[in-house]
Amino acid sequence: MCGIAGLIAKERSDLGDDLVNMLKELVHRGRDATGVALYEQRDDIQARITLTDPSFENDLHQIIQNYGQISNAKIYPGVGIFTFFEGSIAMDSNQISQLHWDIDSHPNLCVHSLGQHLKVYKDQGSAEDLVAVHQIDVGDCTHGIGHVRLATESVENINFAHPFVSYLYPGLSLVHNGQFTNYFKMRRKLESLGIRFKTANDTEMAAHFIAYEMKEKGKDLESALHAALDTFDGIFTIMVATDSQIGAFRDRLAFKPVVIYEQDNGMVLFGSEQISLTPIISDVYATEMEPGGVKVWSV
Amino acid sequence: MVRLDISGMPTLEVNRNLRELVQQNDEIIVENPHSVHNFATALKGKAKITVEGSTGFYTGGFLQGPTVIIKGNTGLYTGDNMDGGEIIVEMNTGSNCAPSMAGGTMLIKGHSGSRAGWGMKGGNLIVCGNVGMWSGKMTLGGRIIILGEVGMGIGESMYGGIIHVLDPKADEKLGGNVALKPIADKEKKEVETLFKKFAIEQSVDSFRSIMPKVYGRHDYVMFKPTHKKRAEV
């Protein structure tokens, strides 16, 4: 089933907590994994990476030290078998894609997020489990997207959980509710263009496709989403966030739900169900996005 | 009149209590509903049940007689397969209200979501606010009245029944296989009677009616390929 939620709110100080509370209301839509992508207002480059075992910490440090110095590093166990690394890196922002590629080249490491504003927290279990183990340590955020997973595609592994990022376009994150029926066709097509996949989850394809359209073809988010709507086949309601925008689009038969509520002060709430909006605002008439709809909001 | 506090009560017990109370009381007031799912399912009798709060999914499913008044909101599939009686929602409902409804009346004083009155077979559905996309889709019978705006594809693939709309832009949002016509005098009287019963102050003159183009089966159009000569391709 899966559930998605999102929030654009400059004036709320604790956006991370708000988004987690929205996901707590969607727990009935999936409790295999929960994840949030938050966009923080800061200047240094943040990394969140999983290790299959704490012993790979040295390998990770060696890779990162080719690009810059690590500070505020912490390493801690997650809900399941994975170990998490979090830290900031003093490096050239033009080399983020290359560092992302190098870390993902290691079979025991997986980048959850690497970029200037974006931080992705995802782990197995419900939103309650996520906040019990991970300290969502973010400053002032502008926007964020979140996802609760009921695994239907690929394996139940947190690296296969949403939000997905792409090394092609640092700062892009994506959550998806649904299944693609042309995943293998699209994956082969993207692989023939030189794009490397880290997981076997169909949503990673969507992240790479949109990142490729924006990075290599120079499209803006809205035209990239239109291209994705024309190319993807299957059931999908997708939310994509970049450093300055959130976009949403839906398949033409509108299988998977998303309701949107826009407030006059610029706050926008997204959720699979109306109940996910209630921790922020209750008793409002949220409208459902139309089938085949594409819309982008600037933060 | 009897008051029933259902705070923390399992759904099965809520409905078991209601079934007993409906037999002996004319009026039941339900307190602390906390959005309970499957509230007042398959109830028979003539009692009036007033809920002081919001209820969850499948409120009043298979209802067969009582009047259920909900002072707050309801969730998805309100009045699923309703057979008789009345459901009055003072605020909004979720998507798919009155699906496959066969009889009775549902009045929503706020807004409803997508696919309102989906596959209705009989009875009346009145929505004072807006409805979302594909409302009245594949309707087989009954009457839907919408006072607010309608979503895209209203009445898509209707087989029977009728939808009355006030939305001036309804012709742009019409579904396939349906026609939009001015309201007939006979229909006006029927709608007026309903409005009088539920004290809805709204003139019926500016309503328009949506009904299937062809009653019964759709016109089946055989696919005819057009051949072009090779030179033209």
Extract low-pLDDT stretches of chain B. Answer: none
SSE string of chain B, helix = H, strand = E?
A: EHEEEEEEEEEHE
Largest interface: A-B, 11 and 16 residues
Largest sheet of chain B: 11 strands, mixed
Distance linking N and C termini of chain B: 80 Å
Poorly predicted residue ranges of chain A: none
**Global mean pLDDT of chain B:** 91
Oligomer: heterodimer
**What strand order characterises the main sheet of chain B?**
1-2-3-4-5-6-7-8-9-11-10
What does the radius of gyration of chain B come to?
A: 20 Å
Keywords:
heterodimer, A: about 300 residues, alpha+beta, five-stranded antiparallel β-sheet, 7 helices, B: about 230 residues, alpha/beta, eleven-stranded mixed β-sheet, 2 helices, about 20% strand
Describe the structure.
The complex is a heterodimer of chains A (299) and B (233). Chain A is an alpha+beta fold and 299 residues long. In chain A, a hairpin with a 5-residue loop joins strand 4 and strand 5. The longest helix of chain A is centred in the C-terminal third of the chain and has 14 residues. In chain B, strands 1-2-3-4-5-6-7-8-9-11-10 form an 11-stranded mixed beta sheet, covered by helices on one side. The longest helix of chain B has 14 residues. The radius of gyration of chain B is 20 Å and the shape is elongated.
Briefly characterize the structure:
The complex is a heterodimer of chains A (299) and B (233). Chain A is α+β, with helices and mostly antiparallel strands. Chain A contains seven helices and 16 strands.
What's the layout of helices and strands?
The complex is a heterodimer of chains A (299) and B (233).
Chain A: E1 3-8, H1 15-24, E2 33-40, E3 45-51, H2 57-65, E4 69-77, E5 83-90, H3 96-105, E6 109-115, E7 118-124, H4 127-133, E8 141-149, E9 164-165, E10 173-180, H5 183-192, H6 202-215, H7 221-231, E11 234-241, E12 245-250, E13 259-262, E14 268-271, E15 287-288, E16 294-298
Antiparallel strand pairs in A: 1-8, 1-14, 2-7, 2-8, 3-5, 3-6, 4-5, 9-10, 10-11, 11-12, 12-16, 13-14, 13-15
Helix pairs in contact in A: 5-6, 6-7
Chain B: E1 2-5, H1 11-24, E2 27-31, E3 48-51, E4 64-70, E5 84-89, E6 105-108, E7 124-127, E8 143-146, E9 162-165, E10 178-182, H2 185-197, E11 208-212
Parallel strand pairs in B: 1-2, 2-3, 3-4, 4-5, 5-6, 6-7, 7-8, 8-9
Antiparallel strand pairs in B: 9-11, 10-11
